[in-house]
Design a protein that fits this description.
about 375 residues; alpha/beta; Isopropylmalate Dehydrogenase; ten-stranded mixed beta sheet; 13 helices; 12 strands; binds nicotinamide-adenine-dinucleotide
């Protein structure tokens, strides 16, 4: 099969980790007979330097002609000083808007051999493996009015608006149900229905939609309770779905469970992943451009490589290929190969490209 992938590697360690993902795509292509046509483009600080904007209209047009986007990371101290009006992050914000990427998906997995890297006790995190889905294009961050003013008696006031309609809620919940169908068929839907009208609508829509998925156990949970469960009993979760603001905070809380930012992939999708059709999505490691280690070939490429695996599974329906990447990552970790971020004290660590080579060799044995 043939696929067109936009590759925007960005700044800092973005190009270093993305290079390893491309290695993996090549290995998958040669093992399974697929062709991945790569369309590279600039985004973030490097695009500001070249073009004055974090992403050009031409690059956006090119992306829209692709089947999916592989993204590295953007930003760095250089642009904190020089780019007051055009920030590197504007690149990713524009892509999200243009592609209508309404669901953000982060798998959280604690590898058996890396339990020591988690800040939580081993007995709490052993075997943790769940997905958290965050609504990305509506809610408090986008609702109007959103403003600040001074009242007549000089008091400073401000307002943000939390708005959702049932269609916005339904489509992201459907992503949750669909992903749960491919896993343990357990979906936690998080809300604050005790105090918020949008949450009551959210819960109503979730309950209605669950009739289409009788095989999935739907569990409603208050978001504050979920915040506690994530650090005391994370094993109860399989798939979690929630609105934008709760998801922003809870997905960051969930991210630290695994131990290193360098291990965690993510996907942002513009439609509900189906079994046969292609789903346009953007795939990226959750970490940033890590300027403190950029250019040294020591960044962990696994988050980017697992993002590539997610792309094969959810945008292209290539489940066997995706499983092979995931299993190859598992294998090199259990054989003891580590980059510096996950190595124990005094343990030998490998470079970014050496880890990429090991995983690629497992695929193309
Ligand atoms: P960061 O994720 O870049 O780094 C945080 C820490 O984790 C650093 O010590 C870094 O060395 C380490 N780290 C991150 N990824 C790693 C990897 N793959 N392997 C090993 N260690 C890794 O976050 P930050 O330092 O807060 O931000 C740096 C820049 O990245 C800022 O300009 C920020 O705006 C930007 N940023 C971009 C994105 C994105 O592009 N999606 C996300 C977050 C931050």
């Amino acid at each position: 099969m043939e696929f067109k992938v936009a590759v925007l590697s960005g700044d800092g360690i973005g190009p270093e980790v993305t290079r390893e993902s491309i290695k993996i795509l090549e290995a998958i292509g040669s093992r399974f007979g697929h062709t991945f046509n790569l369309q590279t483009g600039d985004v973030g600080g490097c695009s500001i330097d070249k073009n004055g904007v974090a992403i050009t209209d031409e690059t956006l047009d090119d992306i829209l002609k692709c089947d999916s986007v592989l993204f590295g990371a953007v930003g760095g101290p250089k642009w904190d000083v020089t780019s007051e009006n055009e920030r590197p992050e504007n690149g990713i914000l524009r892509i999200r808007k243009e592609l209508d990427l309404f669901s953000n998906i982060r798998p959280v997995k604690v590898y058996k051999d890396l339990v020591y890297a988690s800040p939580l006790k081993p007995e709490i995190v052993d075997d943790v493996d769940f997905i958290i889905i965050r609504e990305l294009t509506s809610g408090l961050y986008f609702g109007e009015p959103k403003k600040r003013w001074n009242s007549e008696d000089g008091i400073r006031e401000s307002v943000d608006t939390l708005y959702y309609n049932e269609n916005e809620i339904e489509r992201v919940l459907r992503v949750g149900f669909e992903l749960a169908m491919g896993r343990e068929r357990k979906l936690h839907s998080l809300d604050k229905m005790n105090v918020m009208a949008t949450s009551r609508l959210w819960r109503e829509v979730a309950t209605e939609l669950s009739e289409e998925y009788p095989e999935v156990e739907l569990i409603h949970m208050l978001a504050d309770n979920a915040a506690m469960q994530l650090v005391t009993n994370p094993k109860i979760f399989d798939v979690i779905v929630t609105e934008n603001t709760f998801g922003d905070m809870l997905s960051d809380e969930a991210a630290v469970i695994g131990g290193s930012m360098g291990l965690l992939p993510s996907a942002s999708l513009s439609s509900v992943p189906g079994k046969q059709k292609k789903t346009l999505g953007l795939y990226e490691p959750i970490h940033g451009s890590a300027p403190d280690i950029a250019g040294q070939n020591i960044a962990n490429p696994i988050a980017s490589i697992l993002s590539t695996s997610m792309m094969l599974r959810w945008s292209f329906g290539l489940n066997e290929e995706s499983d092979l990447i995931d299993n190859s990552v598992d294998a090199i970790l259990s054989e003891g190969y580590r980059t510096i971020d996950i190595a124990k004290e005094n343990e030998k660590s490998l470079s970014t490209s050496e880890i990429g080579d090991l995983i690629s060799n497992k695929i193309n044995y």
